[in-house]
Amino acid sequence: MGFCNAARRSADDQAGTEPPRFTVVPGDTAIDGPGAGAGAGVSEASERVCRVVSTRPELGIAPALDALRVAVSPELVAEVLKNLSNAGMLALAFFRWAERQEGFRYTAESFHNLIEALGKIKQFKLVWSLVETMRCRCLLSKDTFKLIVRRYARARKVKEAVETFEKMSSFGLKTELSDYNWLIDTLSKSKQVKKGHAIYKEMKRKGRFIPDLKTYTVLMEGWGHEKDLLMVKTVYQEMLDAGVRPDVVAYGMLISAFCKSGKCDEAVKVFHEMEVSGCMPSPHVYCMLISGLGSEKRLDEALKYFELYKESGFPMELPTCNAVVGAYCRASKFQHAFKMVDEMRKCKIGPNSRTYDIILHHLIKSQKFEEAYDVFQRMGSDGCEPQLNTYTMMVGMFCSNERVDMALKVWKQMKEKGVLPCMHMFSALINGLCFENRLEEACIYFQEMLDKGIRPPGQLFSNLKEALVEGGRISLAQEMALKLDTLRKTPLRG
Prior knowledge:
Number of strands: 0
Distance between the termini: 59 Å
Strand content: under 5%
CATH topology of the domain at 421-494: Serine Threonine Protein Phosphatase 5, Tetratricopeptide repeat
Radius of gyration: 25 Å
Number of helices: 28
Largest sheet: none
Helix content: 55-70%
CATH class of the domain at 421-494: Mainly Alpha
């Protein structure tokens, strides 16, 4: 089956499957009925609001928003908060302003988006005050607690994550096996698979729930991420001993674990075992094998499985095509990667921003910096706006190569698009400015970082302080230390 023939079968299915972008224009949110077409207006208003909020000091946000005269609605509030998820303090300032406006209405979605933003900067006391407000307004659900659990887990606060999960029952929310599976999965994906496994063992010991296929699958995935093949095999055997037969997802987790550990020959054996057992490989299984073989620079074998994938009758999908692009890049065959992108474009199944991020990552890794910047500039013409990850790579690339002026140019472009910088971007830029002895500018961006509620890693401040002291700017170093200490000790206002 030809590439395009397979692709055309699902071209319509691929529309709108790109992951959410970290921009202030997340896409069409139009609704059916009399308000149809309003989504574009909400996105436009959201863009204007985010630009104002992200460029004003905290005390100047409310007056600037008043001057915008935007019509506040639940949809607008939810979208703005979602787009401010990397700037918790700004999200809170906007929410408090919006509460006082005509047209505002409390919704679970807006609360959840605000909880996500505040959880990212570890403002959990304020998060729990929002939970109480939601309780009073009958807006609480399992999703609320799951958001908080995930943020605790990401912050390595495992005890608090589990306690939050257990609190659900005290709010009248009954936990089921599917919820425990979700908890184990969340802990595992937050590099806490040992705790997830302990919960699984406790669950078995108490006999409250009998582990099902999903339980074993998420545990195999978690241990696979840790590259602990012994535990992967142990869980797999326990699953078989419990009389639970593996499905395509369970087989896929085995294949993924072997690929991640550089044991692609073992992954191929599992693939053949699947076929013998009558379990048909899914597109995701082919994608993992292509990626795994590509990461070992076994390009010919990766392409062989791509051909098998096409012959299997599955419609072409972006993730699989991106895996092929990655395999070419790892083999330094960038021209072949670009040809693959051309094929994707002809068949109307991409490329997407992820495609470009893969190419950029490998160009930068190969020290092809000029080519990387050319590709970055071309993204827009393909309808692929750079995401936060894309900007982070480009800023990091220029700063690592003592080209801070180019990093600032990319930064300016990012801000014009309404994309909010993350901690990694600030760190790369501030370190780059320190290296070039541009200390005043470094302090400006450090202050901006603090203003957005982003707590800098200890090493970043150490680097900045050392540069300031060596440059004879001791008073400025003390001023930055005081501001950082104030941020650490002062909780956000609810």
